[in-house]
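Incident log, structure service

09:12 report received: a user says their structure output differs between two submissions of the same chain.
09:20 pulled the input from the user's history:
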Amino acid sequence: MRVLLIEDDDRVAGPLVEGLSRFGFAVERARTGAEGLSASEPEMVLLDLGLPDMDGIDVCRDLRGRSDVPIIMITARDDEVDRVLGLELGADDYLSKPFGVRELVARIRAVTRRTRRSGLAAGGAQPGFPGSTDGSCRSALSQAQRIGPLAIDRRTRKVHLHHAPVALAPKEFDLLVCLAEDPGAVCSRKKILDSVWEANYFGPTKTLDVHVAALRRKLGDSAWIENIRGIGFRLVPQARPDGVDR
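09:34 re-ran on a clean worker, output below:
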């Protein structure tokens, strides 16, 4: 696997490059955010948040805007807000310094498994919609799960609301799919974390609340997702503008 390590501290980067190489990874190192952004696309990015030329959060945002490459944040910051923000922007995991190479390798393998499952769920779909020749979403909607005015196409990982596309980050889409498995039923926090992130997930639990809040904003109405205090969340079907909810 080709790994891009964006890390300015030689004391951290040296042992990581050596250790990952022993596990069979081909590691390219970038010392600045700009250098990392200009590197050829790898199969995995290890991103330090404390870079000398720009904030790692901005690097994460830029990388995710152009690619679905898996990103693991490496941080010495104690502020949970930074970690949650990075995850919300599309990072797949994070590690707090100090950490061992074996733990990092385990995280890389876990993230790789998740992204491969997501790719299989997407069915290798190409951009656009099957059978559509005019750019409209009508043909895609016929293959999607309908929940009131909401349409979720798992094959293409596309979402439409009132026939308008809704741009979701990968984790936001997976969260919506999890809740949509049984609309109206309560989905526990543990089940969501196990399904959307991974079984035995041990990152910040606030991550789930951040993603729920982001998904609510993108759906345009917080009533779509109800918080069942102390238990979890449920997707509440909303009526169409004409009052028809099927």
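09:41 both user submissions now match this output. Likely a transient worker issue. Closing.
09:42 reviewer note: Residues 124-142 have pLDDT under 50 and may be disordered. The domain at 138-235 is CATH 1.10.10.10 (Arc Repressor Mutant, subunit A).
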